[in-house]
Amino acid sequence: MSDKPTLPGKTEEKVIDVSLKQVIAVFGSFVFATLTAGVSIVLLRDHARYKRQKAVIDGITNLVLTLSQRNLELKPEMTMTKSMSGS
Fold this sequence. Notes:
Elements: H1 20-86
């Protein structure tokens, strides 16, 4: 036996051939997916904001209508009490 170190045997090279079309397609799909997700998030956020603003405006409108109806209902009573107290 020799004490001389031996080199490991040759291994097979594992090289994957990739065309430029495939690289561009993968990169393009990542860009498209990122843009789609970003646009979806923006649209959902804007839709939620629109719904909140619409709810606030509807609530204020209902409040104003309710108060104006109560004022209309209270005005005849107020005139009656004023005329009764004046007599």
